[in-house]
Amino acid sequence: MANYMLMSKLYAPTLKETPNDADIESHKLLTRGAFLRKTSSGIYTFLPLGQMVLHRIEKIIREVMNASGAQEILMPALQPAEVWKESGRWDDYGPELMRLVDRHDHMYCLGPTHEEIVTALIKNELNSYKQLPCNLYQIQTKFRDEIRPRFGLLRGREFIMKDAYSFHSSQESLQETYDEMSKAYAIFCNRCGLNWRAVEADSGQIGGKVTTEFMALANSGEAELVHCDCGYAANVEAADCISEAKSYDVDHMEKVYTPGVHTIAELAEFLHIEENQTCKALSGKSENGDVFVLFVPGDHEVNEIKAAHVVPGFEILTDEEMEELGLPKGSMGPVNLPEGVKVIADNSLKSIDRWVVGANEDNYHFVGAKQGVDFEVYDWADLCVTKPGDKCPNCGKTLIGDRGIEVSQVFQLGTKYSEAMKAFYLDEDGKQQPFIMGCYGIGVTRTLAAIVEQHYDENGIKWPISVAPAHICVLAIGKEDYVLEAASKIAEDCAWAGFDVVLDDRAERPGVKFADADLIGWPLQIIVGKKGLEKGEIEFKVRANNRRGTIPAGSISEKLAEANIAFRNIKNGADDIFSSF
Ligand code: ATP
Ligand code: MG
Question: What value does the mean pLDDT take over residues 410-434?
């Protein structure tokens, strides 16, 4: 028999009013529906209903992870500073790392992630290539002192993550596990009922495409992505950009007085040209202090992450730094730059004969500036932020824009941690080698919120069957004992048919029960009332599509049996298993 709960006993204080500080739908509905309470900024308590959904999500995670050969462990949240100092991240992680001191003045942190702990764990115990590959995971609370905790569970300071770490003796073996994990994540997203895309992301490493983010599509998502019918999808920061620049047809460079022209749009209008006939500039410095000005076609933005691939440690110059160097804030251009300042330009500008650029002087631009004649370009690179409407780098069709919530990410770490922490194994020739590592994270609490962001209407949540706190709510509508008896009999039938069920046996008005059932979002409502019982009928409502109807009271077992078969065959967690009703 599946779970059978009584609404009268359930601690589920639903709210009529929307909490003031809830900024997105999932946060509002999870609070009103009694899944969640905010304890402090970015810190939450899960009420019984919330905990039930978390358990469902975690169960799916365990199934897909175990099936892929990963093994579950549990590491501490409280981590000694020493291992973080060994990896170098005690200094590199910055203020997001929650640090604390114990009574003996030893420093600790609350783990934002576990590369250090897991590497220290296997070091000296995982010794031989024969023991590899090895993939360990945990489901655990993480701490990050986010600068802006917001959007409820989407960006918390304390949150639950599934994190896995794999160890390998070759790149091929890492790739195999990485692909296996990507497959597991795809299944996980489907089983949670998410509409998602696997997107190419930026690894922060030069040239490497060694990380994929799994994005739940939602307008509330913080990530911008582009995707194409051909299957290509990428974070706008990481997507290769096929930008198109156009030449300005003149045969020599000319200085033009452009009073009051500040933006690219104003410049294009002033000169009666298109925005991609102009250039946008951004100045920055490298980690050794070399100064560069980067140029992209005027209709695109400079991508700081891509900039860091050509200018190591790229940082935008502050106003003071620009002033000191004699760089103007507006109207920056490649002609007559201060001594030592180098030009890097987007690949698309390479074939452009004559550029329209700032004159490094307020209210002036040069039109028809020619590279190699009027100025020199030090280096060329893809420097643009890709945008919807650009050409797909894979097939050339037009890219579509979307917003997404990053629910998970897979990452090839290489030997960064094993080298820093001296974690070695012996290879076939008995030689010491650093482990090649991968890491794979799923935001468990973020996934819960992302599911709600994709499954709700004005009345509440519509849980996919796979993660709903219970599958069916039987509502007893009427004060008479025989109504409650009939309803409880049906609820039992549901439980015997394999469905987790809740019986709304409260002495509440029908309106309250209906509103709560919609708000909480049980996938199927079975409504048992006096009138229906007299006619031998039972009402139902499928929450996913709000389809209502009646069935003969005698057919309930048969309908439940059919739903059970549909349940066992679902492809996507949000599939409607109650279509037989
Ligand atoms: P973001 O870019 O959104 O800050 P991240 O890339 O730093 O996330 P990872 O280190 O890749 O996050 O962590 C793995 C997963 O943990 C993420 O994909 C996300 O689902 C989840 N996660 C990360 N930060 C938070 C947070 N502050 N609150 C809730 N979940 C989070
Ligand atoms: Mg990430």
Answer: 96
Question: For the residues 383-408, what does the mean pLDDT come to?
Answer: 95
CA distance 308 to 218: 29
Q: How far is the CA of 446 from the centre of ligand 2 (A)?
A: 12
Query: What is the C-alpha to C-alpha distance for residues 466 and 326, in angstroms, rounded to an integer?
Result: 61
Distance 274 CA to ligand 2 centre (A): 37
Distance CA 117, CA 140 (A): 13
Count of Cβ atoms closer than 10 Å to residue 35 Cβ: 29
Contact 268, 278 (CB under 8 A): yes
Ligand nearest to the CA of 185: 1
DSSP 8-class letter at 477: E
Would you say 301 and 331 are in contact if contact means Cβ atoms under 8 Å apart?
no
Strands across the sheet containing 342-346 = 315-316, 279-285, 291-297, 342-346, 379-381
Question: HSE of 467 in the Cβ direction (CA atoms, 13 Å)?
Answer: 32
> How far away, in angstroms, is 142 Cα from ligand 1 center?
10
What tokens appear for 206 in the block?
């030069």
The rounded distance, in Å, linking the Cα atoms of 471 and 573 is 12
Helix (H, G, I), strand (E, B), or coil: what is residue 514? helix
Q: Euclidean distance between the first and final Cα of the chain, in Å? A: 21
Map residue 181 onto helix, strand or coil: helix
Residue 236 three-state SS: coil
pTM of the entire predicted model: 0.91
Instruction: Determine if ligand 1 sits within 6 Å of the CB of residue 237.
Output: no
Tokens 């009928």 sit on residue: 537
Indicate whether residue 409 lines ligand 1 (CB < 6 A): yes
CA 54 to centroid of ligand 2, rounded, Å: 20
Ligand closest to 445 (CA) is 1
Q: Whose CA is nearest to atom 21 of ligand 1?
A: 443
Q: Hey, is 198 helix, strand or coil? A: strand
Query: Does the beta carbon of 156 sit less than 6 angstroms from any atom of ligand 1?
Result: yes
Q: How far is the CA of 160 from the centre of ligand 1 (A)?
A: 10
Contact 364, 257 (CB under 8 A): yes
pLDDT per position as a tens digit, 353-373: 999 999 999 899 999 999 999
Say if ligand 1 is within 6 A of residue 190 CB.
Answer: no
